[in-house]
């Protein structure tokens, strides 16, 4: 089975994790949130009880492509340089 959200079990788990990591909440606030009974029951299948574990899982995700750019010489004058952008394939 191909899971694009691995190491998370699916999109919903990744969305919660992503929101928490980008929320601006402190580590203590996130840890407190994860320990709330309602949250811990709803997220009981997730293998993390703290922000440290959550960040460790997120760091296992593959990085996106690396973007590169190159200024292209033209035979005609332009107001701005012509720039070619491309992404290297992720392996």
Commentary on this structure:
By secondary structure, the protein is of the alpha+beta class. 38% of the residues lie in helices and 13% in strands. It has four helices and two strands. It has a two-stranded antiparallel ribbon. The longest helix is centred in the N-terminal third of the chain and has 12 residues, at 11-22. The model has no long low-confidence stretch (mean pLDDT 80).
Query: What is the general shape?
Result: elongated
- The parts where pLDDT drops under 50 for at least 5 residues are none
Q: Spell the H/E element sequence.
A: HHHHEE
Let me know the largest β-sheet. Answer: 2 strands, antiparallel
What's the tally of helices?
4
Strand content: 5-15%
Mean pLDDT: 80
**Distance between the terminal alpha carbons, to the nearest Å?**
19 Å
Q: Into which percent range does the helicity of residues fall?
A: 25-40%
Tell me the number of strands: 2
Q: Using only CA atoms, what is the Rg?
A: 20 Å
Structural class: alpha+beta
Walk across the major sheet and give the strand order.
Answer: 1-2
List keywords for this structure.
91 residues; alpha+beta; two-stranded antiparallel sheet; elongated
């Amino acid at each position: 089975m191909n899971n694009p959200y691995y190491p998370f079990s699916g999109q919903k788990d990744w969305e919660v994790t992503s929101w928490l990591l980008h929320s601006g909440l402190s580590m203590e606030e996130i840890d407190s949130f994860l320990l709330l009974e309602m949250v811990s029951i709803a997220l009981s299948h997730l293998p993390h009880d703290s922000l440290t574990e959550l960040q460790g899982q997120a760091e296992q995700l593959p990085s996106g492509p690396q973007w590169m750019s190159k200024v292209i010489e033209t035979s005609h004058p332009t107001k701005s340089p012509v720039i070619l952008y491309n992404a290297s394939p992720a392996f």
